[in-house]
Amino acid sequence: MRVEIESTICDLGVMGKKTRSVIGFTGKLINDLLSFLVFSFLDVLDVLLCYVYKVVDFVVEDEWKPCYCSSSKAAIVNCGNILVSENGEAEKIVCVSSTKLRLEEISDTLYSRPSVVVDVSKTTVKRRNVVPSVGGRSPFVVEMLQEKIGGGKMSHPVPRWSDCDCETCNSWSSSCKDTLFVHMEGRKDNNISENVLFIHGFISSSAFWTETLFPNFSRSIKSKYRLFAIDLLGFGKSPKPHESLYTVNEHLEMIERSVLEPNKVESFHIVAHSLGCILALALAVKYPNSVKSLTLLAPPYFPTPKGEEATQYMMRKVAPRQVWPLIAFGASMACWYEHVSRTICLLICKHHRTWEFLAKLVTRNRIRTYLIEGFCCHTHNAAWHTLHNVICGTAAKIEGYLDLVQNYLNCSVNVFHGQDDELIPVECSDNVKTRVPRANITIVEKKDHITIVVGRQKAFARELEQIWKTARTT
């Protein structure tokens, strides 16, 4: 009898596995089919919105505004934009910002985003907005760049009609402050060697740290450390210049100008989340003798398979064009569709004060609204270029950053990842471990991309304090 019962239980277990397998396969099939239909529709919608915005931009701003699906002839004459060509063949439209422009910082994913039909068919047909990128530059292009930059002096134009013009969003042009918004707590004097720089992730803000971790740091830490939480260029309360390309170097230069230089920071710890991890690695490599510890939360590192284009591979990993999970669906709309994502920003970001008010009204302040505020307070130009030029554009460089951290930086490396993260999977942290074997990897159970911090802020604050106290000196 006992043998029969055990055999029955075993059979039920096998049947359960088969049932789960069938359900999983069916669910994936449905998700793939819906994704194909939805994103095929978005491909068409983005084309239509392109023409709509061209007309509205012309009516409101008295000039045709270029986009990344414009023809070269349409974009070459526009203010702040130039046509880069190499040997009369490949062409590229580049917006000139106030800082020194390096063409290699411009991600080709801004131009090369094939439709979902092309991806599925595996043909060589290209979408109409695919424009080959170039690596070199002719003397003619260099001359144009120098003329456009005009000595490197930043202009402060008024916001575009589709952007919010409140004091926060228009901070660059209204107050002409050429620095980021920085929230600082802890010791106030400069004669101190312990500093911590917090870098938030994509479409977030410094409040991700100041509303969670800062209230939970111990008095001893605040008496010895200076804690700097920044709003990255284009996000939160920081300037949002629409002529910026939001490249890695532009972000780093603003961090230097806003935190390191004015506060005479000579050595520091870094804590970064998601997209911020890329900037943290770039900053650590730039200041190898200054970084005392490097703490990365959900770092987006996907090693590029042989034969794949790094930027394109990264785009497909962080934005897989799937309707489920929802966080991946949102990332896909933001990454693949220039005009759809601009429409979303028009509805959400331009009216962020309304959404913030409604959030407080509906929740009656039972939950904090800092996540909503961080999500809504940016511009399409900032989000679009940061996503492509920082996340996708650095895909081929991250491996080099990690190798430099492993071989040349004398600092502790700690990585935290939520087990249930559906946007940046746990494998990314495992990949970091392969490049930096000394890295301490912590997988937090039942936590995702946001709850890796939110909801466990007290525990994480203690973990950070321990990391800083035991960090090896440079």
UniProtKB/TrEMBL annotation:
It comes from the Eukaryota. It holds the Pfam family Abhydrolase_1. InterPro entries: AB_hydrolase_1, AB_hydrolase_fold. GO terms for molecular function: hydrolase activity. Signal peptide: none annotated. Residues 196-317 form the AB hydrolase-1 domain. This is AB hydrolase-1 domain-containing protein. It comes from Deinandra increscens subsp. villosa.
